[in-house]
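Structure first, sequence second, as always.
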């Protein structure tokens, strides 16, 4: 059985008898802004987010004229351009997205243009498509819509690179054709004052392969949703995340793998490190296995490394299973300080304490960084991790305080 994007959208907009997601983590969707109340912070999907620091993006802040520059390279055979009018309106919802938040509904309804990245069928793009977004004025509240369309059996890598100072709400939609092989990397390397609220929604075609990497270092507040549905059997999604929070930063990542077709796969791996007073990270993972999704495989994992006192890491994995006919499903979550045994082993062999700490952190992130699969980005991430470590002198490590659960 094949579930098309249109049928998924229809199911999500209708009642329970048509497959509506009955989940406190994913309220019913609607394109009508009036159907969405302004969040108060008491809702399950908002309870970790400090709403006052969003500067109204979650509510009714004016979407002003953009102060964020956007530039890109254009490899041969690829169309990349800003579009407006009927063409832009026709791209709203190409991923099957039906907004379940007020801010996302506002972006689709109010933003007049879209950035279109269009890779035709059977096209293999030889170099990464890199879109640089550089914020220039944090006092400007703005919004954007990005639509990525990958034809059947195409192959491409897209990198969204966020830098500078900005207050922005963004919806990114990714439509992946049958048999395509697509990687999307979103790097949030903002200045310390930036606010970034984003929703990434992907639909994965029959036998298609999708990799999404969410990498967050900078910003005062970054919250990103990375969701995926399936348009046919055999689709596979790998959801990766890496984040490093410093004093006062709030970094929040949420994923939703909605298995809407049989014999599909999803694997999520997110790793984060925290250092400095009131550094706060949130990871909420959810996998929904619908009745139609027989023979699926899924696993979600989140690991956090606490480097100093005064940090908080919230980690909440979830599985919602509506059929017993699955190949495998599981999740794992753990938060810990440095492993004293690792540090002792290194120091007993003449490695200094600071160098031992650095090596342990690099080892913690290394396997995930290698999974990104883009050499230039992998090198950049290693350098950035090094720079983050240099911001604080790690003291009072204490003993290993690991706590978590595996199932």
């Amino acid at each position: 059985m094949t579930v098309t994007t249109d049928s998924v959208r229809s199911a999500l907009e209708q009642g329970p008898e048509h497959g509506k997601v009955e989940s406190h983590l994913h309220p019913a969707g609607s394109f009508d802004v009036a159907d969405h109340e302004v969040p108060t912070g008491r809702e399950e999907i908002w309870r970790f987010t400090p709403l006052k620091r969003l500067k109204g993006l979650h509510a009714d802040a004016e979407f002003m004229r953009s102060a964020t520059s956007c530039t890109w390279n254009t490899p041969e055979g690829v169309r990349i351009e800003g579009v407006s009018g009927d063409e832009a309106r026709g791209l709203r919802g190409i991923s099957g997205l039906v907004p379940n938040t007020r801010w996302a509904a506002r972006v689709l309804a109010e933003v007049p243009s879209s950035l279109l990245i269009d890779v035709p069928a059977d096209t293999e793009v030889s170099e990464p498509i890199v879109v640089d977004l550089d914020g220039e004025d944090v006092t400007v509240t703005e919004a954007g819509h990005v639509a990525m369309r990958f034809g059947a059996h195409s192959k491409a890598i897209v990198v969204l690179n966020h830098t500078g100072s900005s207050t922005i709400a963004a919806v990114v939609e990714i439509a992946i054709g049958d048999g395509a092989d697509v990687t999307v990397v979103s790097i949030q390397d903002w200045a310390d004052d930036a606010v970034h609220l984003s929703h990434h929604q992907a639909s994965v075609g029959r036998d298609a392969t999708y990799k999404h990497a969410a990498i967050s270092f900078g910003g005062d507040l970054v919250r990103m949703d990375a969701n995926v549905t399936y348009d046919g059997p055999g689709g596979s999604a790998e959801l990766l995340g890496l984040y490093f929070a410093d004093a006062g930063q709030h970094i929040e990542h949420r994923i939703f793998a909605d298995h809407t077709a049989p014999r599909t796969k999803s694997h999520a791996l997110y790793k984060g490190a925290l250092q400095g007073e009131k550094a706060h990270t949130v990871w909420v993972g959810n996998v929904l296995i619908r009745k139609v999704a027989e023979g699926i495989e899924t696993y979600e994992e989140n690991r956090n490394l606490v480097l100093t006192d005064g940090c908080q890491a919230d980690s909440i994995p979830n599985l919602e299973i509506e059929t017993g006919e699955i190949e495998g499903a599981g999740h794992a979550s753990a938060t810990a300080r440095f492993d004293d045994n690792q540090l002792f082993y290194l120091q007993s062999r003449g490695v200094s304490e600071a160098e031992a700490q650095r090596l342990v952190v690099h080892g913690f992130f290394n396997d995930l960084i290698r999974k990104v699969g883009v050499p230039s980005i992998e090198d950049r991430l290693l350098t950035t991790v090094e720079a983050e470590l240099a911001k604080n002198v790690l003291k009072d490590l204490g003993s290993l305080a690991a706590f978590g659960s595996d199932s």
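Margin note: DSSP finds six helices and 17 strands in the chain.
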